[in-house]
Amino acid sequence: MIKNMSGKLDVGDARAWWDFALERLTARNLALRPEHVAEIHTFPSLHKDPFDRALIAQAITENPTLVTSDSQIPRYASAGLKTIS
């Protein structure tokens, strides 16, 4: 949504796009929960983006596949993030 708001990505109606994207990907929305926030607290200072740190914490605690092109994220393997080479 940040990219949509800044004009870098046009998704039209953001709410309709989100519902459509989840349905097409057969994905589910994963809310940020207290255990995710607690996991963030244990991280080394490798990455400053708070949104990415939240995604990493969710991936560590919930064990889904996290797909990213961010070269910094695999550095969290020592924190328990599973990576695919």
Lay out the secondary structure:
Blueprint: H1 2-5, H2 14-24, H3 34-41, H4 50-62
Average pLDDT taken over every residue:
86
The helical percent reads 40-55%
Number of domains: 2
How big a fraction of the residues is strand?
Answer: under 5%
**Count of individual beta strands:** 0
Radius of gyration of CA atoms, rounded to a whole number = 14 Å
Q: End-to-end span in angstroms?
A: 29 Å
Which structural class do the helices and strands define? mainly alpha
Which spans of ≥5 residues are poorly predicted at pLDDT below 50?
A: none
Largest sheet: none
Tell me, briefly, the overall form.
globular
What is the overall number of helices?
4
Order of helices and strands: HHHH
Detailed description of the structure:
The chain folds into two domains: 1-30, no CATH class; 31-85, no CATH class. It is built from four helices and no strands. The radius of gyration is 14 Å and the shape is globular. The chain is mainly alpha-helical and 85 residues long. The chain has helices at residues 2-5, 14-24, 34-41, 50-62.
